[in-house]
Amino acid sequence: MKPYEKLLSENKAWAAERIAHDPEFFSRLANVQSPEYLWIGCSDSRVPPDQITGTNPGEIFIHRNIANMVVHTDLNMLSVLQYAVEVLKVKHVIVCGHYGCGGVKAAMTHQSFGIINKWLRNIKDVYRFHQEEVNSLKSEEDRLNKLIELNVKEQVMNLAKTSIIQKAWKESHIPHLHGWVYGLDDGVIKPIFEMTANTPIDPIYQFDNL
Ligand code: CO
Predict the structure, then answer these.
(1) Burial of 65 from C-beta contacts in 10 A (0-12 / 13-18 / 19+)
(2) Which DSSP symbol is given to 83?
(3) 173 is catalytic
(4) Strand partners, 65
(5) Pairing of the two strands 92-98 and 176-182
(6) CA of 107 to the centre of ligand 1 (A)
(7) I need a surface site. Which of 58, 74, 118, 165 has the fewest CB within 10 A?
(8) Which of 16-52 are b and which e, b meaning 16 or more Cβ less than 10 Å from the residue's Cβ?
(9) Alpha-carbon 158 to chain mean position
(10) Is 64 one of the catalytic residues?
(11) What is the CA angle 194-200-202, rounded to 5?
(12) Which residue among the candidates 42, 63, 96, 178 is catalytic per the annotation?
């Protein structure tokens, strides 16, 4: 068996096991999804959202990219956000970063990585806003992890700047926004920032005509 074929045979075993435990499992999920959560996480293979949160298929709507960014020109992220908020009506949006994130680490260097530079630029901007706080820390690891936390906070605030979130807050007082950071070394998620619905934002980003 070729290595990738293992994925297919594991899948067959998984599907059979699910059916054995709960014969209605797939027929129930096939028609409808009503997740309460949208997860915006890093693409890193060591941070699988449903495994680390003990959630099942149907429970979390997921978007992942390098370093869990909320970039206001990213059509992919915006489409996921709009669908999750306006159609699925999720109650919570979680931005989850992770300590030791390679994307954030790369953004702190002076190395060129080709096309990915354009993505990392967004993280360099976060670094520039918080340079003093980050640079006050002695070890490289502490500086990296501080920027990882600040980046998560910044991305949560970026969500609140979108018309999608502002409109939902005005109309239905959801979703609440959460910033979390996952520890690769202990498997524990640390909540670091929260914006409950209708939290005031910097006025310049506020739309009055939604
Ligand atoms: Co990462």
Answers:
(1) middle
(2) I
(3) no
(4) 42
(5) parallel
(6) 11
(7) 118
(8) eeeeeeeeebeeeeeeeeebebbbbbbebeebebeeb
(9) 12
(10) no
(11) 100
(12) 42
Has 96 been annotated as catalytic?
Answer: no
Domain ranges of the chain: 1-32, 34-205
Record the tokens describing residue 172, joined without a space: 């239905």
Rounded Cα distance between 56 and 53, Å, is: 9
Question: pLDDT digit of tens for each residue in the chain (210 aa)?
Answer: 899 999 999 999 999 999 999 999 999 999 888 999 999 999 999 999 999 999 999 999 999 999 999 999 999 999 999 999 999 999 999 999 999 999 999 999 999 999 999 999 999 999 999 999 999 999 999 999 999 999 999 999 999 999 999 999 999 999 999 999 999 999 999 999 999 999 999 999 999 999
Contact 133, 148 (CB under 8 A): no
Residue 52 alpha carbon to ligand 1 centre in Å: 15
